[in-house]
Each structure stands twice: as structure tokens, then as C-alpha cells.
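Sharing a chain and its predicted structure for anyone who wants a worked example. Both blocks are below, sequence first, C-alpha cells second.
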Amino acid sequence: MSWPLASHFSTMLQNPRIAFRDLRLQKAVIEKNGQNQPRPWAGAFAVVYKGIDADGQTPFAVRIFTTESPERRDRYDLISAYLQGRKLKCLVDFEYRDQSIRSAGDGKWYPVIIMEWVQGETLFNWLRARSLEGHREAIATLADRWLEAIQELSDNSIAHGDLQHANVMVNAAWQVKLVDYDGMCVPPLVGRRNLEVGVEPYQHRERGAGTLLSLDLDNFSALLIYVALRALAIQPGLWAKYVEQVGYDKLLFRREDFQAPAQSPLYYDLMQLGNNDLQNLTERLFALSQARMEDVPPLGQLANSYAEVERLLTERQWEAAVDLLNRRGHFRDAPARLQPLIYQAYEHVCRQQAWAKFLRIPAETSEQVDRQLVEGWNESLFANFPPAEQQRQRIVDARQRVQLLDRLRHLIQRSAGKISLSSEKGLAVTAAKLPQGYRHNLQERVKLALRRVKCFAGLEKALNDGSSETAVVAAWKAVVEAKCEQFVSIEWGMRIAVAEERLPIFKALAKITSDLPPDQRDQRILAVWKEKLMADCREADKWRPLHQMAAVRREVLKRLQASVDAHDDAGVVQWGSKRCLAKYPLPQPLAEAIAAAQERIGRNESLSTSQINAAEESPEGETASGQEDPAHDENSALGESKSEPAALPPELSEQMESHSPWKWPRLFSRRSKPEEPT
């Protein structure tokens, strides 16, 4: 049957809902030209249209064939199956769809290929713009990208089959993308009939309808395009001379150039560019155009010849030699005489790269920098390298610090969840070997360990000193805040509990000032004092005299009141005249009772004196009762102790000055009856 014209498909694309079977394509928009017609990009055997998904964001290419090929579907199925799982940067995703687009001519359905849209320019248009700009660097970069793309195809056993300027796209990132896979060959297609013969002058002179598919189909065309790129990168003006001014539509070369190289102006100009590598490639290209097609080697072998490598090595251009070898991919087949120089070149380049990276490490002292130094030091490359040897001591110091940090990390991991005083001391001792102010990732943990050790030492000192309960409690609080209570023994814990119980008493005692009246002072002291708790407390010693005096006065007042209640005038006078009550503000009833008792005793004493005087005049010299004088020594009656009081706090000494020397009572004696306090 006759194949529809391209115009038949273009007419249908005016209305995608009618043109396509696929629902996605029916909703798409086909880009149009200035005449409001679908805009075509025509090729030898197909026309490409740009479609945009209904979302308005995703462009795609619709490739419609303009000739019939019974084998097309089978070949695309094999190509698609082979490429599945192989993601090549130089190829784009595609999908072959049989009976997918309708023709306006006969209304029947025909195949179509849906491809990823490449946003960019054809190689011809891109090179034209860069050459006219004189942008050598861009063209040189694209030459390297071209070499990489061809190597990628070779590494994956793929031949494009029709390499020419219209099938090569260059995107905004200067990356090469190949389109039009009608002539592609993959291993399952090797040996089949060749459906396309390609475009002159890109194809070898032996390429024709009888050429069978092979994985070497691209060798000649890849070399020709590469030589054109390298030439334009050296001399962009070649474009104006051989393309722009003469209205040519190919990349520099013509069929006539290969038919008679000696008469080719282009051949002459290329050989005069003064680049040995380009001269060698040009000679090989023209020579291979006359050789058998199967004798043309892959571009990778030609572009990276060992002749240029040897020249670069001989001139000690190590970086350029290594770059060329890297583009080649390997140097296993290098001549034996070049092997030592190649290793020397790689060693030099690797050393320079490693050293440049090493020099970027900041000049500071911290864990981050130390680890960078240790990691960045390459002994095999830097040994006996003068600039590196000057940094060796810095590396030695960094390694020592890193080892200390690793030791710290090991100690922390080992003690995780079960810290002990010894482990915290180990952390503190190890961290102390690091420089002062050294920044590292374990700083906070080390600070905690140092804090714990310090807090424990403070508690130990406070407990051993024993002179301040406040210090013990404060040290214990610091230990709790540092979360190291488990370091404290049971014995220490009991001692701390006593200190915590004593502390409120000391706070209350501290509020008792010297300007308080004695009765109020006694009440406060007696209210808070706990003799059993304070018995062996050294910090309580300064308060103990005050408590003892308050206790004596309390007992004297108790006995005074008992004498008053018993109407015992002698007892009232006895207890009321105790020195501890001097300047003591007695309650009014007690003061009056003492005065009354003293008055009554005075009257009795006067009467007794009269009686004694009368008795002395009698011959017997005895009292009427015949007994001894009932008067007793006051000190004996009061039962005062001969012991001296303990030293008083300074703030209370003034109040006691008029009562010295003191004779402190013993509240409890070894006799069955307690002595009467003064």
C-alpha cells in the first residue's frame, strides 16, 4: 500500500483528539508555526513535532515516519528491549507505538515514536553560533563531550548508525544527545540488512544499501565529526571559510576532500594549524577514508594514540598526558618503554591533586581540622616531597590528638549507662592532655566529667573538714546537679543527711541577733536547738554557750516559780538572786514575789538578830532551840559549779561582761540528786 504524505499527518495534528489513539496524546497541544500550522522538523525518513502535555509542563517529541518499513516495529522492539536497564546519558527515552496516529489521506492508523524532547540546538546550529563567536573553549569542551558520548556507545555495544549534524543535539549544559534511532544497531540486530545509508560526507565511501548492521558503523562518522570539532576549537574561523561564506550545510568536510586529499584546501589548512595531535588525526581520517570500512578503528583508539602520549611524557607535560590517558580509558596496551613514564605521570598528577586538596585544610587546631589532616595525608605520595615534609610535624601532632579523641570516645562508650568515679577521672585525665582551648566534639561530655570529679572532690573535702554543715550540703547539691550521686557511699550519705537536718537549725540561729532581749533570745534558741543532733557538731560550738545559758535560766526560772508556788521565801530569794538572772527581764509577778520574799526574810533576820543578842547575854551562849545558826553559805546552798564557761560569740560578749567570772552549773551530776543551778 502507498504510505501517507507528511502533510496528511500534519493535517490530523490540527486536532490531537482525532489524530491520536492514546488519551494522553489526545489531550496534548502540538506546537505551531507562524502560519498556525503544526511546526515540523523534517528528516530523511521521518518528521518530528513538538507536543506538550495537558499539564503544560512536560514537552515530548512525536516522530512520524514518511516511508514504509515492514521491519521497523521488530527492530524498535529489539532496540527497546536491549536498552531497558541501560541508562545512557547520550540517548533519550523513546517508545514505539504501532497504529497510534491517523492519516488524513486514508483515515487509517500508522506507527509513531514518542520520545523525550531535547531542549537544545542541533550540532550544526550550535557550532555555527560558537564558531562565529570565536568561543574556542566551548567547542573544545564539546569535543571532549563528543568523545565521551562515542565511548559510552562503544562501552554498551551500541552503534547509532547515522551520526551527522542533524541527529546530534546540544543542550544548554553543552551535553551531547543523540536522536533518530532508525539505523541503530544493538547486538541482536548485528548482521541484519542496513535500512539506511546515512548522509555524506559523514559515512565511509563503502557504506551503502548492501552494508550489514555492525557495531562498528559509527567509527568513520565519529572520527570525522571529532576532527571537525578539534579543528574549530583551534581555529573557529574555519567555519566562516568552509561553511558560512559558501553556504554549505555540513561540518567543514566535503566528499571531494576525500576523493583528492592532495588538492583539498581544507586538508592543507588543517595540517597548518600547528597541532601535532590534530595533524595525526587528520592524516588518519583521510587515510582511513581510502581503506576498507571494517579497518576503521574506534574513535577512542585514534583520539588517544600513544604517539601523542609519548610526546607529552617526553616533554614532562604530566597533566596533559594523564588527561589523554584518562580519555582513552586504560593504558594496558601502552608500549613497555612508556610504562614507567606513565606511572611517573600519574604519581605526579595524583601528588599535585592530593597536595592541593591538603593545602585547602584550614590552618587551625580543632578535631575537625585534625581529622582532615590525618585523612588528607598520603604517605606514599608525600614522602620526600619537600613542601609536604615541612608539614610532617603538624601531622604527627594531629595524629596524637586524634588518638586521644578516639581514646576518649572509647572510654565514653565503655562507660555508657554505668558511669563511675574512676571512669570520669579517666576521661578528665585523658582530656587534660589536649591543648588548652582545643575544640572537639566531646567537649561537653568532658566538661561534665571534669565537673563530676570536681564536685566529688569538693564533697570529700567538706566532709573531711567537718567544720561547716553548710559546706557539706552545698557540696552535696553540686554533686546532685552533676548527676553523680552514685559515687557517694552509704556512710557519706548518712553524714549528708545529718548535715541537711542541721542546716535549718543553723539558719534559724543565724537570725538571732545580739540586740534581742535575753528572754526572747532564750526562747528562740531553746525552740530550735536539738541537743542530740548538735552534740558532736563543731559548727554548733559557737552557739553552744548561748544554749547552755538559756537552758540554765530555764531551769532556774522553773525552780523559782516552784518556790513561789510553795511560798518558800528562802527558795524564792535563793533562785531569784542567781547571777544568770542579772539584767534578765523577769515577769512582773516573779519580780514582785522576789521583792516580797526578800522583805519578809529581812524582817525575820532582824528578829533573829535581836534574839541572838539577848542570848549572848545569857551564860549558856546558846539559842533557845539549842541548835546551830541556820544561816548557810550562799554558794553552798546554790550548789554552783567551779567550772569555767566556754567562750561566747563576739556579738554576745558585751552583755555578759558584768557577770564575769562565770561559774557554769552542771545540770546533771553523778549524784542521785541534780545540783541546784546558779
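Comments welcome. The mean pLDDT is 86.
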